[in-house]
Amino acid sequence: MSPIPSAEDVLEPDVEVLTLPEVAARLSLPVTRVQQALRDGHLLAVRRDGGLVVPALFLTDDGAIVKGLPGTITVLTDSGFTPDDIMRWLFTADDSLPGTPIEALRTNRGTEVKRRAQALAF
Asked: Is the pTM of this model over 0.90?
């Protein structure tokens, strides 16, 4: 089984994170399926205090992965971004959105986010 990819903890300390069992509970999935979602690039985790955690903003209030997040992670990965780079990019304010890319994804502005992510490849 391949290791679970993760980023260093590049997030601000006040960013709410969830353990993998907490993510599994919110998604109504076994932890092994959450681990597979991380391996498949549908989610991204950071290492904090020795464990893997996922930003709470990656999940919707109704128990799903934020629409457009997996595709955005794929675009950025294909562009050569590391997990650290992706995590920083998702949580860095962009005046043209406005807000951060993850906030834009959460408010159904995925097309704008993907357009910016694709532009980074060139």
From this structure: yes
48 contacts 28 by C-beta, under 8 angstroms: no
What is the Cα–Cα distance from 13 to 61, expressed in whole angstroms?
21
Evaluate whether residue 4 is within a structural domain. no
Instruction: Return d(Cα 77, Cα 8) in angstroms, integer.
Output: 16
Instruction: Tell me if 94 is assigned to some domain.
Output: yes
Each of the 122 residues of the chain gets a pLDDT tens digit; together they read 668 989 999 999 999 999 999 999 999 999 999 999 999 999 999 999 889 999 999 999 999 999 999 999 999 999 999 999 999 999 999 988 889 999 999 999 988 998 898 888 65
